[in-house]
Amino acid sequence: MEEIQSQSDNYRSSSSSASSPASRVPSSNFFYLRKPGSIRQPISFEDSPEWEDTDTDLRIEEGGDSINAATTPASPSLSKINSGSLPSPRVPEGVVIPRKIAGASVAWKDLTITIKGKRKYSDKVIKSSTGYALPGTMTVIMGPAKSGKSTLLRAIAGRLHPSARMYGEVFVNGAKSHMPYGSYGYVERETTLISSLTVREFLSYSALLQLPGLLCQKKSVVEDAIHAMSLDDHANKLIGGHCYMKGLPSGERRLVSIARELVMRPRILFIDEPLYHLDCVAALLMMVTLKRLASTGCTLIVTIYQSSTEVFGLFDRICLLSNGNTLFFGETLACLQHFSNAGFPCPIMQSPSDHFLRAINTDFDRIIAMCKNWQDDNGDFSSVNMDTAVAIRTLEATYKSSADAAAVETMILKLTEKEGPALKSKGKANNATRIAVLTWRSLLVVSREWKYYWLHLILYMLLTLCIGTVFSGLGHSLSSVATRVAAIFVFVSFCSLLSIARVPALMKEIKIYTCEESNEHSSTIVFLLAQLLSSIPFLFLIAISSSLVFYFLVRLQDQFSLLMYFVLNFFTTLLVNEGIMLIVAALWQDVLGSLLTLLCIHVIMMLSAGYFRMRNALPGPVWMYPMSYIAFHTYSIQGLLENEYLENSFAVGQVRTISGFQALQNVYNISPEYNSKWRNLLVLFVMAMGYRIIVLVLLFLLGSRKMWLLKRFKCNRDTTDTS
């Protein structure tokens, strides 16, 4: 205790020297929240401004230049702000005021979360955390990196990783129940948006995926979400830009990801790091927008690493974490009082969040070690010479014995003593609607993504043009058979190899599916069917354009039926190849790993396709069985050669002729049966469907395992609660 007291005294003295008494008068832009239920006497402490006892309510006037504060009676559902002016973006005239939302109270008691191997010295990521969030307020979970902010947020929302184990209780409207679909929204720290869609289009498709009912009703919901997130000026702009047009800034992109969850009009909204990668202006705009959203009645729980003074003034309640320990929970202004009582007052010229993180971030110990024997021009580094471990122990011990902790316990008892109205699940769009929406959305994306699709088509045309010109002018003599076989092999193999350039686009689709599936906006079967339907027009366009160029340059058999079979064979080959790419991309979830794996797969299939060495002469183990039967090149090339040569014959001398099958006997193995080319086409079609079924089973098993582990985790939690 003597060590703690000495550290506190040293820090108090250094803080006092940092600001003179004359500088302690707060300026008009230096403000904090004034909350209901806080201390009713004027609050003043060393190195902090004095505060009025006036409760204020946030009100945004149309056409105004600032957020004005009006005196109102204390209400737990309204956010409070000091009467100092806070600059904010001008609200457009005629703006639609967001409709009120019936929020829900959330309380968590003695939450302890363990994840094996997560921490170096202990598996406990969160240790006995207790807190609550009320409708119409914004509760912020703050702490340094790896303090457990996101883990606590996921635990409250019921979205913990299956490997995590949770002890404790979470109450929603006083009841220990899981939040059903549509009653809450969860925004990840990093979300995937579709850059080739406008903001309004993106939200419209999200509404069609999430909501049942008529289209006109969904349009009003989309407009409400756009207004709520202040995206009116960006509604018709492409999210990622196009050609020479710039896309949305990072702040507006973050607002779009939040607006996607607002389409369901959730009663509770969880946001992980809304200020992630945002500058100070974008961060302030984000928090002002969220503050206005909270004023409509929605319950907001967000995580934040650090904030400016202005942003800090918009918080209603703060949960301060460090290494999983709760150092404070309560009103924002009371947190400043708590640090002052513990011996760590906030200097007048320092941001509160900077001060908090300076005191509890153990990474500063490395700076202390660096500066221990180092002095600057003005003397020593006494302002940073504070042991964070001592500060954390002091703050934790002070909080546990404080009136703030007792007030939290009292509020938890009030919120849980009587169950309120249960949250009801909202209806979903049916699978047929979702398939149609995803298909149409993908087709729209294909028409706009020139880099992934139209450039790909141009590359196909250039490749087939090169192959066709190299093998042009072969004629139809017996001596040209071997060269024509080489041309067909090169065409099928190289064009299939070029298809792996679509891996980044497929990876992007899988990421979007993962994001939508985690929020129950889509499902595996819906995604795969929509992906198949949307890829068919593009692949058929590639197949028919490439086939026409190659077919006429190499001068294959001049019959329309044979040409149509060639196009159909190559189109099915592309479908098979895309199925393989989906499997590899789903397993790797990485572009570089997927490209290297697919390259190896294609090379192995090309070696076993029967061109470099005839199929019946391949070594039995591995190469003939099973590789030559797995390689789709084998069936594609066989079908194309049978299509070209089975009805053809060649003259040998002036008397004898041989069939096309006999001409190919020493070049490539084909079947003499006329219908064998259709059998090869059927095998390709079965492989195309089979690979997609494998993707379906793979994603289903991964999803089922995740759901099974989640149910097991919930059962364990319920058993723990009962015991």
TrEMBL record:
Query: Where does the record place the ABC transporter domain?
Result: 106-348
Its Gene Ontology molecular function terms?
Answer: ABC-type transporter activity; ATP binding; ATP hydrolysis activity
Show the Pfam families listed in the entry. ABC2_membrane, ABC_tran
UniProt-annotated stretches for the region Disordered: 1-26, 65-90
Give any Gene Ontology cellular component. membrane
> How does this protein sit in the membrane?
Multi-pass membrane protein
Enumerate the transmembrane spans. Answer: 452-474, 486-505, 525-554, 566-588, 594-612, 624-641, 681-702
The compartments listed are: Membrane
Which controlled-vocabulary keywords does the entry list? ATP-binding, Membrane, Nucleotide-binding, Transmembrane, Transmembrane helix, Transport
Per UniProt, the ranges with Polar residues bias are: 68-86
Q: Is Nucleotide-binding set as a keyword in this record?
A: yes
Q: Could you say which protein family the record assigns here?
A: Belongs to the ABC transporter superfamily. ABCG family. Eye pigment precursor importer (TC 3.A.1.204) subfamily.
- Identify the PANTHER family for this entry: ABC TRANSPORTER G FAMILY MEMBER 11 (PTHR48042), ABC TRANSPORTER G FAMILY MEMBER 3 (PTHR48042:SF12)
- In Swiss-Prot or TrEMBL terms, this protein is called ABC transporter domain-containing protein
Species name: Arachis hypogaea
